[in-house]
Amino acid sequence: MRHHDGGGVSALEPQLVHTSQEPDQRRPPRRSVRTHRVENRAMGAGRNGLPQTATASSLSMRAEPASRKRGSVGIAVRDRSPKRLQSSEPRNCFAGVEDHAVAADGLSSELALRNHQCPDMGAVKPCDREQDQQDVRERIGDYFPSIHDELGQLCLTRIPRSKIYDMALVCKKWKAYLLGPELYKARRLQSVREDWVFILGVTNVDKKWRAYRPTVNDWVVIPPCPSDFVFDSCDKESMVAGLNLMVLGQGGDGYVVWRFDTIRSAWSTTPKMHTDRCLFGSASFGQFAYFAGGTSRGSLLKSVERYNSETDSWELLPDMNTERKCCSGFVMDGKFHVIGGQQQSVILNSGEVYDPAMKTWNLIEDMWPKKFVPSTQVAPPLVAVLNNQLYGINIIENMLMSYDKEKNQWQLLEKVPHRAENTNGWGLGFKAVGDELFVIGGARGVGLFLPQIHAYSPKAEGSERWRFVTDLHLPTSGFIYNCAIMSG
């Protein structure tokens, strides 16, 4: 008995009462389903129990059921055929064979469409509609319910960097995307900027790095690096590759490169560099960090290598034209540049640019004029690239400068609120952050340091170009040992 739709023969049973001696007048005698199907197959029947070659005219000549001839009561029941053949009106259970013929023709037409066949035109080009619909279903709801996956990924790319690892615990799909290499690429393509200013103010007292986040104006304390006493006590140099902070220096067991993953908030060591070095020129560009020149066990270097944060590997690049130490590096016009430095006791004022297409270095004479360099031992040139424009600080005159690439000349701009001449350029951070130039720490007089950050905006006018950013919430007087910028 069926009760779910309110139709069928069983719904009329209370109105038609009969005894076991009287014949059942409700419907014609039924054969077993199995016997009925076997007979239909023997007759070559198709769907609906009709011969596959039957036509409407031939079917109309078939005799009506015996029970119909005896005057059986016709009962209106709901059509239980496939929905594509149903009509909105109830059908008589003794419908004429013409109706079945029409239904068979309709079914044949639909089967032809599903098989992409047309009786008049023959075979047509297969349609990928069903496959496309399946692909769409697969691309919806994997990251967020009822949201297309591409839109879901855009939402995930805007999660703050400090919260990414926690959000990756939501599900496996989020974890695979947030902790995979595609996240950093997507953030760069969508111009998602989240600048972190990494600063190390004290070396042997407090080895914790701090990171200033300008967008939210707060400080993040980085977990201490699990390095040894030798590494903590010696001079170190820092760089950024992708979403990783790199700290290089001499450890108890030799030269070591530590890497801090800002997503997992964990320290680890990288494979060995091809050549251990210090006092090198370096620059960050996407997932890569470039290292050029420097010294190694007392020898000047002109070799260059590049670290890939996605593959955690080092790659040798062609050598520079000149050995140099205490030089600076930067990326401008998509090319790695090295500027200034020293060669033994000779001050170098030239620069070099690496052409990645030709894999060659081109020398740029007088790129860092000697008038900018004191005669005493000096720090690497203070340079930074903002919106593909090179800026520098003349520590002798304490002036901010901009570089003209076409003329290979520097133009003086404005006085810098921080001073570096008393320390020959050491202890001052000069970095591009967002759309501004940050001047970090430095001196404000003989033996006096300034534990503050000021920013210069080239787009502003007059006195509004310089602004106070924040105090250095560090255990330091203002002398900056290491500084690195992470964007993206």
From TrEMBL:
Keywords in alphabetical order: Repeat
Highest taxon in the source lineage: Eukaryota
Renumbered residue ranges of the record's region Disordered: 1-89
Polar residues composition-biased segments: 50-60
Record organism: Marchantia polymorpha
Pfam families according to UniProt: Kelch_1 (PF01344)
InterPro entries for this protein: F-box-like_dom_sf, F-box/Kelch-repeat, Kelch-typ_b-propeller, Kelch_1
Xref: Gene3D superfamilies: Kelch-type beta propeller (2.120.10.80)
Descriptive protein name: F-box domain-containing protein
The UniProt record lists the keyword Repeat: yes
Entry GO CC: nucleus
